[in-house]
Write a structure and sequence with these properties.
By secondary structure, the protein is α+β, with helices and mostly antiparallel strands. The chain has one domain (2-73). The protein contains two helices and two strands, in the order ααββ. Strands 1-2 form a two-stranded antiparallel ribbon. β1 (58-63) and β2 (68-73) form a beta hairpin. The longest helix has 17 residues, at 10-26. It is globular, with a radius of gyration of 15 Å. It starts with 9 loop residues before the first helix and ends with a strand. The model has no long low-confidence stretch (mean pLDDT 82).
Length: 75
């Protein structure tokens, strides 16, 4: 991932790694964890119910200039 980022010193490297770590643990589902995020496992949140029927509108949230993306359904 960092081969697509231009970093300008230690401060920007720390910011990029912090954002990546946050995204990896809070938003990115892991197949080894039954497609759950590590934060949900640590806090004991139950797994979300599978979606049945139409999905509806999906929103994309980007960070690190569009390199990290997370998707969620609209309420």
């Amino acid at each position: 991932m960092f081969d697509h980022v231009i970093l300008f010193g230690l401060k920007s490297l720390r910011r990029a790694t912090s954002l990546y770590r946050y995204h990896f643990n809070q938003f990115r589902p892991h197949q080894g964890l039954a497609n759950r995020v590590p934060h949900a496992i640590r806090t004991g949140k139950p797994a979300p119910e599978p979606v049945r029927g139409p999905i509806g509108t999906v929103h994309c949230e980007e960070s690190l200039g569009g390199l990290l993306k997370s998707y969620r359904r609209a309420a």
